[in-house]
Amino acid sequence: MAAQGGSDRGDSRPSSAPAKSNGKPTVTVERLTHLDVPEICALYKRVWETFRPELPPEMVKAWAPTPLEFTSWMEGVTYFAARRDGRMIGAVGCEFNDGSCRIVHLVVDPDARRLGIGSSLTSAAVDWAKHNNSSAIWVDALARFTAAAEMFRQLGFAEAGVLHKHRWKEDVRLFEKLL
Ligand SMILES: CC(C)(COP(=O)(O)OP(=O)(O)OC[C@H]1O[C@@H](n2cnc3c(N)ncnc32)[C@H](O)[C@@H]1OP(=O)(O)O)[C@@H](O)C(=O)NCCC(=O)NCCS
Known about the structure:
Helix content: 25-40%
Bound molecules: coenzyme A
Strand order of the largest sheet: 1-2-3-4-5-6-8-7
CATH topology: Aminopeptidase
Shape: globular
Largest sheet: 8 strands, mixed
CATH superfamily: Gcn5-related N-acetyltransferase (GNAT)
Structural class: alpha+beta
Radius of gyration: 16 Å
Oligomer: single chain
Strand content: 25-35%
CATH class: Alpha Beta
CATH architecture: 3-Layer(aba) Sandwich
């Protein structure tokens, strides 16, 4: 599952998905375009609604943007989406600052977890960071998101610290990978 991106950070639609192989559903990871905004907003809503009532409602609201809000998220962030048989089942954003890349808004549809989709999206972010000559890639995750922590460790990220009561009074763990 290789990421298919362009050579720049513009908005051109990436190359098309490969055909099915061996009758298995094909998963692709491709650059997101403005045409995909309604679908990614629906994905974020699906994912974060499952965290009610454990997560603070303001957090769920902040992480499930409207199409208009997501359009402004796209300013300065490159998003990739994973699709299975054409349906969006995961997404990740890459935000560049001063030579490093931050992973943002990584989610996988609850129905599609433990199939390597989150790893593929993270690898796409790593590839994109390398492509843009970043020296490091990092991500912060709520400390309660133990699945994400385990996945980042599996992918060679090192835990770099904890920010206490950082987001909506929740502890946040930092993970980094030098490139
Ligand atoms: C974190 C998340 C993106 C992982 O996506 P995924 O597609 O299920 O991850 P993968 O299938 O690539 O998992 C890779 C490895 O991570 C670890 N892992 C993933 N989910 C796990 C879980 N629930 N418990 C323990 N380990 C887990 C495992 O080592 C797994 O490998 P294995 O399945 O061979 O054992 C997904 O659970 C998710 O969307 N969670 C909610 C949102 C979130 O936490 N986002 C990250 C914010 S930074």
